[in-house]
Amino acid sequence: MGIVISGMTADARFLTKFMRNECLNYWFAHGSRHPCERLVAKIGKKSQVKTSHPSKRPFGVGLLIGAIDEAGTHIFETDPSGNYFEYVSMAIGDRNQSAKTYLEKHFATFANFGLEDLIKHGIAALRASAQDTELTEHNVSVGIVGGDSYKQLSKAEIRAQLGAGNGDVEMMQQ
């Protein structure tokens, strides 16, 4: 499972610690991994309860959760109101609308692409939303959820993807 946060880091840490504990409890009780959708539903319920009590402060964080379980690979988005949705591709955070627009234009073709092409499209979506910021290996992180594991690309691999990705995605867009 890989998680991207947008919002208050302390709230994200609290929710991820809760998720870890729920996964451990499920493992001890059932001897298998926690189903992703059920775990995300628990986060949604926990977030929604905070919005119902006047004495409680709602969580100030949105999560983008990439996970794999027996049902396949999933991407979920949660928000502070308790809503959660499953997507084929999604972007969260500041200035995410440009990245969402890029992903909406291309998501129908993602099923036909290999890993390298998907990474290039992810970086192109980041470039669309970070127009005035240069993307480098210091401000980009790429995580891959698939097979039976989670892998994060190294700085050298990210540098290579950032350098090689410019022309390839432009050719894909045509």
User: How helix-rich are the residues, as a percent range?
Assistant: 40-55%
Largest sheet: 4 strands, antiparallel
CATH architecture of the largest domain: 4-Layer Sandwich
Radius of gyration, in Å, reads 17 Å
**CATH structural class of the largest domain:** Alpha Beta
Strand order of the main beta sheet, please? 1-2-3-4
* Element string (H = helix, E = strand): EHHEEEHHEEH
Would you count the extended β strands for me? Answer: 6
Description:
There is one protein chain. With 174 residues, the protein is of the alpha+beta class. The chain has two domains: 1-87, Aminohydrolase, N-terminal nucleophile (Ntn) domain (Glutamine Phosphoribosylpyrophosphate, subunit 1, domain 1); 94-174, no CATH class. The chain has helices at 9-30, 36-52, 97-106, 115-129, 155-173, and strands spanning 2-7, 61-69, 72-78, 84-87, 143-146, 149-152. The strands form two sheets. The chain has a four-stranded antiparallel sheet. Strand 5 and strand 6 form a beta hairpin. It is globular, with a radius of gyration of 17 Å. The two termini are 33 Å apart.
